[in-house]
Amino acid sequence: MIQEKYNIIGVMSGTSLDGIDLAHLNFEITNGKWNFKILESETIGYSQEWKDILKIAVGFTETELQQLNKKYTQLLGNIISEFISNNKIESIDAVCSHGHTILHQPKNGITLQIGNLAEIATICNQKVVCDFRIQDVNMGGQGAPLVPIGDRLLFSEVTYCLNLGGFSNISFEENGKRIAFDISPVNTVLNFYANKLGLEYDEKGTISRSGKINSELLTELNRLEFYNLSRPKSLGFEFVKEVVLPIIERYKISIEDKLATFTEHIAYQIGLTLSNKKSKLLITGGGAYNEFLISRIQFYLMETSIIIPEKKIIEFKEALIFGLLGVLKLRNEINTLCSVTGALKDHSSGKIYNPK
User: Fold this and answer.
1) Do residues 137 and 344 lie in contact, with contact meaning Cβ atoms separated by under 8 Å?
2) What is the 3 state secondary structure string of 31-100?
3) What is the pTM of this model?
4) What is the Cα–Cα distance from 26 to 35, expressed in whole angstroms?
5) Cα–Cα distance, 251 to 61 (Å, whole number)
6) Which neighbouring-strand residues pair with 348?
7) Mean pLDDT (whole number) for 252-256
8) Quick one: residue 17, left, alpha or beta (phi over 0 = left, psi -120 to 50 = alpha)?
9) Which residues pair with 84 in a beta bridge?
10) What is the pLDDT of residue 2?
11) Coil, strand, or helix at residue 351?
């Protein structure tokens, strides 16, 4: 008989380089409905050395990437092991880990999340479910976003689920299918300019709020080809590095004005995305703390009820859902939706490794 309760560690590292999110999770399925609890949770920040490496790794050679993958797998395995030990967590069914995205070029059949090598299971001495994206890309999909299956199963009471992380992505039901896609860069750009001011990030959007919108830059950003592409579609850091930042850098305006303008761009694109304005919008991810950004989103969605959930869901929703993806993989159930990624069919993605 297939089990109904699971004791899981969910692990996520996002493109905004905030750190590695770890969450101890309990899942239970009752009459076909999934319920969850987020127990102990923690974000382990990257050292400055690791941040610097991960920022430039998109330009590494294949050999350099292989070496980085080994080092990062060791780092991640050790961090997971310490989290389990420090919190005295026992009887774990699996560690479900996303890894860290370095390359994402689905049009070229390429996606690379480091930290997903088989030896991670031995390092943390647990069964590990990981490497969720590659199978979807091999099946003609975008390999992203993967969170929408969790939105459907865990957050069905809201109309839209919006994540504001390195990029914004949204998911919702449309004609009986789950639809999801990336909207625009968010913290990959905002943090880049906050870093130039010697800050980790623009707390509450205070600096952005002090700037002035440059209408010419805003218009150019809103005309980017990506926004006219049909879905499914997804973004990687390559888009920020090769397209977005060069455009912004051409404008000789203050960093405050760049932040204000890009915040307006984010909010405007999100406003365009929601077809049902009289709806419930759940916002999670680090951007949920950016009060100025939230206020600008509300400006474009005056009739929409914006829901900012409890802190654990804001910060650990992706770790939570990758935990669920791992559970679904263990059950050999669908965890990746072709309506979202554009793959040939729905499928159960991920690799399962046991410690040696």
Assistant:
1) no
2) CCEEEEEEEEEEEECCCHHHHHHHHHHHHCCHHHHHHHHHHHHHHHHHHHHHHHHHCCCCCCCEEEEEEE
3) 0.88
4) 8
5) 32
6) none
7) 98
8) left
9) none
10) 82
11) strand
Distance CA 288, CA 311 (A): 10
Q: Which amino acid does the sequence have at 176?
A: G
Name, in order, each residue with C-beta under 8 angstroms of 222's C-beta and a sequence gap of 6 or more.
Answer: 265, 268, 269
**Assigned token pair, 226:** 């990506």
| pLDDT of 329 above 80 | yes
Output the pLDDT for position 17: 86
- What is the Cα–Cα distance from 75 to 72, expressed in whole angstroms? 5
User: pLDDT tens digits, residue range 107-158?
Assistant: 899 999 999 999 999 999 999 999 999 999 999 999 988 999 999 999 999 9
How far is Cα 248 from Cα 330, in angstroms, rounded to an integer? Answer: 45
Mean pLDDT of the 159-177 span:
95
CA distance 232 to 177: 13
Q: Which amino acid does the sequence have at 55? A: K
Distance CA 290, CA 164 (A): 9
Sign of CA dihedral 333, 339, 344, 350: negative
Q: Token pair 């625009």 is at which residue? A: 184
Q: What is the pLDDT of residue 210?
A: 98
Q: Which of 44, 124, 131, 118 lies closest to 92, judged by CA?
A: 124
Q: Cβ neighbours of residue 5 under 8 Å, at least 6 residues apart?
A: 26, 27, 28
Pick from 4, 44, 3, 46: nearest CA to 23: 44
